[in-house]
Amino acid sequence: MGIVQIVVVILILGLLVKPVGTYLYCVFSNEPNRTDRVFGGIERGIFKLGGVNEKTGMSWKKYAVSLLATNIVLVAFGYLVLRLQGGLPANPNGTGQMEATLSFNTVISFITNTNLQHYSGETGLSYFSQMAVITMMMFTSAASGFAVAIAFVRGITGRKSVGNFFQDFVKAHTRIFIPVALVGMLVLVALHVPQTLKPTLEMTTLEGQTQQVAIGPVASLEVIKHLGTNGGGFMGANSAHPFENPSPLSNVFEILLMWTLPASLPYTYGLFAKNKRQGWVIFSAMMTLFLLLLSLNYFSEMQGNPAINKLGIDASQGSMEGKEVRFGVAQSSLFTTVTTAATTGSVDNMHDTLTPLGQITPLALMMLNNVFGGKGVGLINMLMYAMLGVFLCGLMVGRTPEFLGRKLEAREMKLIALAILIHPFIILAPTAAAFLTDLGKGAISNPGYHGVTQVLYEYVSSAANNGSGFEGLADNTSFWNITTGVVMLLGRYVSIIAMMAVAGSMLKKKPVPETIGTFRTDNGLFTGILIGTVLIIGALTFLPVVVAGPVAEYLTLR
Q1: What's the rounded Cα separation, in Å, for the pair 187 and 1?
Q2: What is the largest CA-CA distance in the chain?
Q3: Is the pLDDT assigned to residue 370 strictly greater than 70?
Q4: CB–CB of 353/332 below 8 Å?
Q5: What pLDDT digit, counting tens, does each position of 452-461 carry?
Q6: How many CB atoms lie within 10 A of CB 558?
Q7: 16 burial class (0-12, 13-18, 19+ CB within 10 angstroms)?
């Protein structure tokens, strides 16, 4: 039955990919379509108010600068609110200001679409901060990532320009995130997720004691945290909390919320490229990698913990440590795989309690740059690997490589190499530094090989802008707040700027005619080459540290 549950959710996703991908193309193709009748007037009013000429295209540099400038303003606003929240309205529980380094980490986390939380949501923030900073940044960071992905696709498919950042930024809000979030919030409320501004509830326990139960505007945050592949959570227990995720039905709904848009973007890319098979090749490679790692996690968790099995305890339900009984192993494994494949970071089970081989799945998905990725991240990274695969094949046959009718030359490959190499560097370097200092080692709650994984996971999650964590790590210290904050910044913006530069470079190239010697990138052979490229790069950069953590722990338990 567990496998049936997983298959049904994947089939539903498959049915959504084409219509959603087509809608995304209508939104961002900037060609007249029926959606203009609904949203055009609102958008024109916003552009007029902001003094934006949405019909003017930008160079890749101006596009990147516009993105950075917008994000800097939002960071400054968010930091001030968190530092002053104790004296701001909508604070019925009297929550005080947030500490300086934690405020830095939090605003960087949410503007980079990471949503790594070194605080407990229901006690660390006021309602105003939850809405004005956290929920606001969940919209704006997702819209920023979506805009960059579309700009990159325009560049490599030979459009007139990469587009206008402000037009893409506004359209992502008005035509995608806000309307879907409104409907999704109502669905979650119908599934018994709270949405209120009342203070905590005082309940009487069975023992006759009183207990404060946190509530608040949960549904509105919950829907955009998944739709925008943000992660985070209103409650400290995240989507394992019954107020955030009360039932198996809400669990499936949240999985589809965070998975549908990233899975549909390859189809949108195929429409931009005027060759749908290009999009299906990317989607097939993503899904193959996803299924391989999902299988590893599911079957590892179903085998249970060898140390517990030796005690003669019934292991027929698999390893239930850290999992909610209402979800079981199947939905927990699917959620774990989707949340790290789609760089969401939301969790419905404790990743710190995964079996050793089960831990490899979330780690590998983030190390491989998220596979499906969040708002465009996965598509950009997969296209980056596709270009690298074409280049390597060109070297082997002694031919100048071409991608979508344009030559790949030294400039593009240097930028792609930078984007690929920065990822392992900002993971492995701070991981090593953490083990060289008492500030880093002091946070480890489980010594030995599992402790290695705790530290590694924190930096992998930060670099991949995922945000999930091995919550056994005591990470709310100045050392972890600052180091992970820097890693999140580098993980987000270095690759964005590098790939925007690639898009700008490809845009300037003249198309070359297809010949009998042109290497095709829209068939099954290239799907295999793309998967092989991703796995080889991942193994070369991360296999040793994975062996030192989860693999060594598995061998020890055996």
Answers
A1: 26
A2: 81
A3: no
A4: no
A5: 999 999 999 9
A6: 8
A7: middle
